[in-house]
Amino acid sequence: MTLQNNLLRPSLTPTVFLLVSALVGSSTAFVQAEGPSSLHSFLNERYSDSEGRAGLCDVYTPQGDPPKNGFATVIVIHGGAWMSGSKWVIQSYSRFLAQHGYAAVTINYRLAPEYPFPTQVDDVRQAALWVKQNSGRFHFDVDRLGLFGYSAGGHLSLMVSSLQDESAAAKLASSHWPADDSRWGQLPTFRAACVGGPPCDFRDLPLDNTTLAFFFGGSRREKPSAYEAASPIAYVSKDDPPVHIIHGESDLLVPIQTSVAFREAMQKAGASCGLTRLPDQGHAMAFLNPKTREEMRAFFDRTLTLPTK
């Protein structure tokens, strides 16, 4: 599929995500309506040795005793065109998950252009390792591990979930980790990924378009391998974990066609992928739409819940 030329237009992207940041307080109020005692929060935990706030995460867990094997756990990844945003922008989703029985880990990650692709993918991997290493402390069930991300966070979620069954060469093309890094053998397996408004394919962008040069380090003519390596659709296979996409039909920033094409590729490969279309919703409003939260929860209820005996 071909991404439209206005995808993540630099003049538009910061405006959209500043709007999301400003409005997300209203969505936070929505999930807090159940009362502040309905969850536990552990803020600014350090999941990596990245300087400053980039290596921080927030943990939200349900109130009460954990299940015998721990809580199903979701890593939650913010958007912002890979160059802005923070865990605060998407914390309402994490609180919502914790209020409905899940542990949620909301992460910051290093931002472009100071840190171009694939730094952000490695940060998600590092967060997954941290979850595994801290499973006892927070009662994470690493056998029931999922991903949720919106926009750029959705892209990163699909990258990590789609790549986990790929060849070493494919993984190394989307990482700064060396081939002999012991972390490769320690990564937990993601069982499900729910994403909103995700860019899925950069392979057909015009060769000399510099819209995403801040992220890739140059145009597609200059950095063809990066644009290829950063396209989740290139890694679709029958062994991918279940995916559910939520996308506004009026999204002009990341057109819904990218999600339609990803779903078709998943179905053709024999993998499970659903798509919820939100009529008359653009990029920011789909993020704030309560249906997005409900669809996310329903998907994880289907894919991460322990089977009844």
Would you mind describing this structure in some detail?
- One of its GO terms (molecular function) is carboxylesterase activity.
- This protein starts with 12 loop residues before the first helix and ends in a 6-residue tail after the last helix.
- It has helices at residues 13-32, 91-98, 119-133, 135-138, 152-163, 168-173, 213-216, 224-229, 257-269, 283-288, 290-303; strands at 39-46, 56-62, 71-77, 103-107, 140-150, 192-196, 243-248, 273-278.
- An 8-stranded mixed sheet has the order 1-2-4-3-5-6-7-8, sandwiched between helices.
- With 309 residues, the protein is α/β, with parallel strands linked by helices.
Features:
single chain; 309 residues; alpha/beta; Rossmann fold; 8-stranded mixed β-sheet; 8 strands; disordered N terminus; signal; AB_hydrolase_fold; BD-FAE-like_dom; GDXG_lipolytic_enzyme; Carboxylesterase NlhH
Helix and strand sequence: HEEEHEHHEHHEHHEHEHH
**How many domain units?**
1
The portion of residues forming beta strands comes to 15-25%
Query: Can you name the CATH architecture?
Result: 3-Layer(aba) Sandwich
The oligomerization state is: single chain
Number of helices: 11
GO molecular function: carboxylesterase activity
Organism: Novipirellula aureliae
Pfam families: BD-FAE (PF20434)
Protein name: Carboxylesterase NlhH
